[in-house]
Write a structure and sequence with these properties.
alpha+beta; Arc Repressor Mutant, subunit A; Beta-Lactamase; 5-stranded antiparallel beta sheet; two-stranded antiparallel sheet; 9 helices; 18% strand; globular
Length: 258
């Protein structure tokens, strides 16, 4: 029986199985997978997996693409992530940001997922740099390196749910069409980091890399500054450093959860 409780541990078997399916869907984000593949990866028969996935879908935690039949994570996962406290993440991230800022000579930031989108929760600037703080601010996802770095690892349906119907043009370089944004997100997934060339504020350039839990973004590390210092020629170098910092933080978070 799916709902059986293991007497000695108090664990509910169906909840364990649903959690395993949710992790399996996250592991194949953003493309998703068919029920047969998910059932096999979790050691379940197809009928049981289908019932559990249908229940997760009713609760907004997964979604089934009507065209492909693949299951992807639902917007409900993002809303749950937005309710998680950030103190532990900030505590582990701060020394990583300090090293990143010292090495690059630029401002390093950490943004986390919130119901309103991405919100900056920690920031380190070099002593010699005067920079306006982004702490507590949310940003337009389509017009910032951090927003695009987050969107690139979400499913197409999640991206559609998170973005407004009209992409606002903040500067002449802002991406304003869904096709252009989709093409850039494909590049970001391949390259590993997002960039911004004055797309939200004309004088600010930056790079960002996602902090991944398996293949799911849980935060974003950014390096930013004025365009006369962070030029497009520096993007590959700074992108590699942002990716290394994001990987370091992801490993730290995994060790902390163990």
């Amino acid at each position: 029986m799916d709902g059986v409780v293991e007497a000695r541990t108090g664990r509910v078997q169906s909840v364990d199985r649903a959690a395993a399916l949710l992790r399996a869907v996250a592991a194949v984000a953003p493309l998703g997978a068919h029920v047969a593949a998910l059932a096999t990866s979790c050691g379940l028969n197809r009928a049981t997996a289908w019932r559990l996935l249908a229940t997760l879908e009713d609760n907004g935690l997964v979604e089934r693409d009507a065209d492909t039949g693949r299951y992807v994570l639902g917007i409900g996962v993002t809303r749950l992530a937005g309710a998680v406290g950030v103190d532990g993440v900030v505590r582990r991230a701060h020394p990583v940001l300090e090293r990143l800022s010292e090495r690059t000579g630029e401002t390093a930031d950490l943004a986390v997922v919130r119901p309103s989108g991405l919100v900056y929760v920690d920031e380190v600037s070099p002593p010699t740099v005067m920079a306006a703080t982004w702490l507590g601010r949310s940003v337009p996802l389509h017009a910032t390196s951090s927003g695009k770095a987050w969107l690139a690892w979400l499913s197409p349906r999640e991206v559609g749910d998170l973005l407004p119907g009209r992409l606002e043009p903040f500067t002449p370089t802002t991406i304003t069409t869904a096709d252009a944004l989709r093409d850039e997100l494909d590049v970001i997934r391949t390259r590993g980091y997002g960039t911004c060339s004055g797309e939200f504020e004309a004088r600010l350039y930056g790079v960002s890399a996602p902090v991944l839990d398996a293949t799911r973004p849980i935060a974003v590390v950014s390096i930013w500054g004025p365009g006369d210092r962070i030029t497009s020629e520096r993007f590959p170098e700074l992108g590699a450093l942002a990716m290394a910092a994001a990987d370091e933080l992801a490993s730290s978070l995994v060790r902390g959860a163990a």
